[in-house]
Amino acid sequence: MTTEVEERSGAVEMYSWHEGMDFNPVEKVILERRSVRRYQDRQVPEKLVRRVCEAGRFAPTAGNCQAFKFVVIRDPALIDEIERFVGRLCRITSFLLDWRSSPLGRAAWLLAQATARIVPNWLHPVPFGAVSLIAQGKLKVFHGAPTIVLVLIDKRGVGYPEKDAYICAQNIILAAHSLGLGTCWVGFAEMLKYSPAWRRRLGLRWPLGIGMGIALGYPQGQPDGMVARELHEIDWFEGGEKRTVY
Ligand SMILES: Cc1cc2nc3c(=O)[nH]c(=O)nc-3n(C[C@H](O)[C@H](O)[C@H](O)COP(=O)(O)O)c2cc1C
Known about the structure:
By secondary structure, the chain is of the alpha+beta class. It is built from 8 helices and 6 strands, in the order αααβαααβαβαβββ.
């Protein structure tokens, strides 16, 4: 006997679990989604973009405050302008902090040391390597995606509204993947907040601030598939004991 919910979901195995069952469609979307960094030239239909934003709107938020707003950018010229702006900031960052290439030499090394103490995660080799590639024009910030969704944070939200915006972005990313689109979370879009001109232009003014950018488009090739992840220990308290499970 099926429940009403099961009937509405087209009789795929959803909303229930039994030992040995295959991954259901939601799990597959979560497990197989990858960040997409190569996009086809064709644009995503407006209705589809609006549909994935709807998935964002239904994210859980503290106190149901829904502390976010979406900005959709689809003008190639505007995307290029943002790319150039972020490129400039990356060049300045490399000049000041990349002791391997900066003409400042030891002064850049000292600045990097100080930065690493104040904001330890900034100079991690992955983002720092990307800064260097963007600065040299070898990496596109939005990877050539035809649509960018900026998720703005409404700072009047309950508690930590940036968390609401991040969860909302993840809903968008998963819904987009389930509908055949590729996405990439673009933290570099946050750099827009350093420019008064961009803040004015994109409405990043109180109470709104930028959370992240999401590159959205049809992927080139087949980028998806399960990626190796580290095994994480889970501490499990039950029956008066603590166990470790994986
Ligand atoms: C907060 C955050 C910021 C990120 N910023 C960028 C970015 O600026 N550019 C980029 O190409 N990928 C970015 N990513 C994507 C990660 O690199 C990617 O999720 C990670 O390497 C795991 O790969 P996967 O998404 O394919 O599973 C970001 C992801 C998160 C969660």
